[in-house]
Amino acid sequence: MDSRKIANSLLIITLVLMALYFGKNLLIPFVLGLVAWYLLNAIRKPISRIKLGSKNIPWWLQWVIAAHIFALSVGFLGIMVVDNFEEFVEVYPKYHDNILAFTESASTDYNLPFSVDEVIHDMDVPTMMTELLNSSVNLISTISMVIIYVIFLILEQSIFPKKMRLIFKDKERMESFTETTKKIDESIHSYLSLKTFLCLISGVIAYVILISIGVDFAILWAFLIFLFNYIPIIGPFLGVLFPTLIALIQFEGYLDAVLVVSLLSTVQLIIGNIIEPKVLGDRLNLSPLTVIVALAFWGSLWGIAGMFLCVPITVILMIIFAQFPATRSAAILLSGGKKED
């Protein structure tokens, strides 16, 4: 490869990275819209098989029913989480006193060279959390953009194949394009639907454990565990961290906190290391190293949204790279070693 080709390649990579970083406010809602569209399709497909007499449910009604199921589920969960959040802000002073007592005892027992009391005494967590909640204007704006993208993706779904047939008039190229999009669709659909199901199981089991032990705001921590399980590698352990800390300052002694972290970690390990590999299998065909690098890369570019989206994006890139001789080696490096056609 001559120096001109190397320079051009580096320039293209630089421009793409700049576009991804500086255009993240536009790109993140679009990618989230794609994810929501895939989830809605996962709900719609079983509905499409329901018969009304001798006919299937009309296409538009399938989407209306799927959207209502999705919106009601998210809305119901959102109301419970917000109620728990508001209650947490109200009772935080009690926790603040417990934290001070706990840290004072720890400083004395372990002869710490600094006083943790001085560090946290002036922290106004309710105000911090309320300000964080008030900054949800940006979140609402993002959600609005996501909804708009989803609506247009649904409208585009029925006419997209016609457009592609007009673009790829050559039969062989059309078949190649159709095969590529089919692989992407199957991989992402499998990942999102199965991953969501496993995250839901983790959240429900976590809720049962926390409510049984008596940890406050169990629904809030279970919801966080559900969300964090979408983040590969580190997500499940981040989800366990919050209820463990609450148990540590809510109850006297360490036994309840140890019980919380032990039970929740066991659930995460069983689901993450035993159930998830059996359910997802080698559908994604990503190596563990690729997942870790993707997590770091997309997390540094797009923050927490990049961490959630790193696996679907990497799978799509790997499938696309595999279709072209010039980038096939990159696809092989990203893969988990399974032979692809």
Brief synopsis:
This protein is mostly helical and 341 residues long. The protein has helices at residues 3-22, 24-48, 59-109, 116-120, 125-134, 136-157, 160-167, 171-213, 218-228, 235-250, 255-280, 288-321, 328-334; strands at residues 51-52, 55-56.
Overview of this protein structure:
The protein is mainly α and 341 residues long. The protein has a domain at 19-158. It is built from 13 helices and two strands, in the order ααββααααααααααα. It has helices at 3-22, 24-48, 59-109, 116-120, 125-134, 136-157, 160-167, 171-213, 218-228, 235-250, 255-280, 288-321, 328-334; strands at residues 51-52, 55-56. It has a two-stranded antiparallel ribbon with strand order 1-2. A hairpin with a 2-residue loop joins strand 1 and strand 2. Helix 2 (24-48) packs across helix 3 and helix 8 runs antiparallel to helix 9. The longest helix has 51 residues, at 59-109. It starts with a helix and ends in a 7-residue tail after the last helix.
